[in-house]
Amino acid sequence: MDNLMIFGARFIIYFTFILMFVFFFKGGVKEKKALILATLSIPILVLIIKSVHLLYFEPRPFISYHFSPLVDPVGDASFPSVHASLMAVLAFSFVHFKSKWAPLFLFLMLWVGVSRIYVGVHYPLDILGGFAVGIISLVITKQITKRLKSHFFSQSF
Asked: Residue 80 gets which letter from DSSP?
């Protein structure tokens, strides 16, 4: 079980990025739109996370409770989880466009979230906060793209 969780905590995120790019080239229109939405959402995601980290710092569980995590420790802020945020952006992009691959990405998102808790680098609230930040960044990105579309395509040239 430890190996499965270590794999989920460290490597599934890279597998997910590779999988998304495969779907971008081999998938349908929904998969391409999902990748574009996720890519546009990542800068918003980073801004939100950096803002939260400036306002609030929660040490990671292994620091607070003095134990060795199952993966190489990083001593930065625990809340919100960057891994969970990125996985949420990717998964919910597929959900938004009703891709048949959405359940796979949701499963991978949950696997990463549970494994990050299991290996001792996050609290459950960090993961839920990461999922929320991912969704919020998607909503903001959708609003921005909607406004840009209406602004640029409503003007006559």
From this structure: S
Domain of 22, in residue numbers: 2-154
Q: How far is Cα 61 from Cα 44, in angstroms, rounded to an integer? A: 27
Residues 6+ apart with CB under 8 A from 65: none
pLDDT per residue, tens digit, the chain (157 aa), is 989 999 999 999 999 989 988 988 888 999 999 999 999 999 999 999 999 999 999 999 998 888 988 998 777 889 999 999 999 999 999 999 999 999 999 999 999 999 999 999 999 999 999 999 999 999 999 999 998 888 777 665 4
Cβ partners under 8 Å of residue 2, min gap 6 = 70
DSSP letter string over 88-104? HHHHHHHHHTT-TTHHH
Query: Residue 91, Cβ neighbours under 10 Å: how many?
Result: 27
Structural domain count, the chain: 1
For the chain, the maximum distance between any two Cα atoms, rounded to a whole number of angstroms, is 64
